[in-house]
Amino acid sequence: MTQDLNVKTSSRTSRALIVLCLTFFLVSLDNTIVNVALPTLQRSLDASTTSLQWITDSYTTAFAGLIVVGGYLADRHGRRVILQSGLTSFILGSVVAVLASSSAIVILGRVLMGIGAAISVPASLSMLVDVFHTPKAREGAIAGWTASAGIGVALGPLAGGVLLKYYWWGSIFLASAVVAVAALVISWFWLPKSPHTKAERFDWRGSLLTVVILVSLVTGIIEGPDWGWLDYKVLALFVLSLAAMGLFVLHAGKFENPIVDLSILSSRRFSMSSLAMATTYLCIFGFLFLMTQFLQGDLGMTPLQAGIHFLPAAAAVVAGSGIAKAVGDKIGPKVLLAIGMLLLVVVNIKEIGFQANSNYTSVVGILLIGGLAMGLILTVGTDEVMGVLPAKHLGAGAAVNVALMEIGGAIGVALYGSIFNSEYASKLRPTSHLLPPALGHLVVGSFEAGLAIAHQIGGSLAFILNLKVRGAFMNGYANAGWVGIASGIVVVLVVATLMPRRSIAVQAFDSETITSGEFSVNEGTLGKTNESS
Questions:
Q1: Quick one: which of 9, 58, 317, 413 has the fewest CB in 10 Å?
Q2: Dihedral Cα 180, 181, 183, 188, nearest 10 deg
Q3: What secondary structure letter does DSSP report for 296?
Q4: What is the pLDDT of residues 169-212, one digit of tens each?
């Protein structure tokens, strides 16, 4: 009888995990699938460069800006219903984008998709703790959840390349809608209802302030490379974000149940794990931003070919998640996070070693090491973060963690892109004087344009220009790699100093901890009661 019950319970939790992983896979996939379609969208919709930028950035901004509110809603109104609401918004946005006849309508669809992602991701992560009650079970579920994100990021370019090869540009949004519909339908049957709080007064002021903080910060980071970091609009956005942060701190100290309980930031497990994961996103997204240009521009791959060549990264993420699950309790989070960050440093060291004659064999090692690091860090970090959060703040706490990761990714693209563009342009300005002013301006401003112009002009100048453009790209790529090296080394030192040695799962089984009914503050965790939300 007991065995039958255990089998049924295992079956139910396995089905729930499929839904939660599918949700995070969808959101991660959409982060990268659209990038390969931008040239096609430009031709089909006659979209400007600014419009193309906002087709990608509108999703990121909406996602990052509303994710904390999404987690707060999940805690208050039930994680299953909020997750389903997010998937519904994602489907609606995908349909709007599929039917769009202008870039403005595509941007509207992307905003709705970003809102859906912001609502569904923290609900899916916090629901893992609802469904998988023991630390060991939660550890395995988080490994699967993390792997689904890595697979989504890596498969995005491949899926986009396949769809664009055989279908029209709207198929990339239609594919997202199909996955979201599948997740929504099975969620009604496979996800249990989750507990939530009802009596607390809604924190409208805190919700508004978190949106202002995140939207202004992310927009400033995204636009900084184009507008200029000292442009008054960028500075005004950063000042607005800082002012809203100050107001939120004052508000959170007075409001009984604020949208974000600031005490979670005092947990060394939470803060160190979030720092490591945010830095991982900084390095990985900055790396992907330049690597995509390298594969399609320098090596001349099609979007489909580039997507296929990214597959080793997906396999490495899965391997890293499995390793973290297998040895996490024995080695401890401090060591695993430090190892993961050191692997990211190695990735960036290999990047700065790129030469003008580098090829895919130079890349595959980077993809494998970077994917392994991502799997290790996200699995260990997510488990530590979710293990330390009080039950009634699971959604909001998870949202803060994911928001920090998204901000890290935005900073990565901005920093890597800015350093690359500055170095690339400085190397090509002397050569650009050999061309007519209009062509010289294009060469300095765009790697893809430089290669295209070299191909078109012919003769000995074409040969020289091609070498100069490729060499300038590699110099820019190498200089950008120093961002990852510096940030990785700093985080390794901080984590090694402040991160607790034992994992939260091991600590939960400590007899003294169980007797006291709460986790030790000295071990870097928050107090935990038996209260269920």
A1: 9
A2: 140
A3: I
A4: 888 899 889 999 999 999 898 888 766 555 567 888 988 999 99
436: helix, strand or coil: coil
Spatial distance between the Cα atoms of 27 and 180, rounded to a whole number of angstroms: 9
- State residue 528's pLDDT score: 41
SS3 state of residue 485: helix
Q: Which residues of 140-169 are buried (b: 16+ CB within 10 A; e: fewer)?
A: bbbbbbbbbbbbbbbbbbbbbbbbbeeeeb
Q: What is the three-class DSSP state of 255? A: coil
Q: What does the alpha-carbon distance between residue 414 and residue 408 come to, in Å, rounded to a whole number?
A: 10
Q: What does the DSSP assignment read for 369-421?
A: HHHHHHHHHHHHHHHHHHHHS-GGGHHHHHHHHHHHHHHHHHHHHHHHHHHHH
pLDDT band at 505, cuts 50/70/90? low
What is the tens place of the pLDDT at every residue in 399-425? Answer: 888 888 888 888 888 888 888 888 888
Instruction: Choose the weakest-confidence range: 213-227, 361-375, 383-397.
Output: 383-397
Both tokens of 262, joined, read 């600031």
- 341 and 492 Cβ atoms separated by less than 8 Å: yes
In terms of Cβ atoms closer than 10 Å to its own Cβ (0-12, 13-18, 19+), residue 77 is middle
| Domains detected in the chain | 10-192 (1.20.1250.20), 204-260 (no CATH), 279-516 (1.20.1250.20)
Which amino acid makes up residue 524? Answer: G
**What is the amino acid identity at position 87?**
L
The identity of residue 102, as a single letter, is S
Tokens of 440: 């010289």
Q: What is the C-alpha separation between 266 and 254, in angstroms, rounded?
A: 18
Q: Which residues contact 438 (CB under 8 A, 6 or more apart)?
A: none
CA distance 407 to 221: 8
Residue 404's closest CA among 279, 243, 284, 526? Answer: 279
- Cα dihedral across residues 130, 134, 139, 140: positive or negative: negative
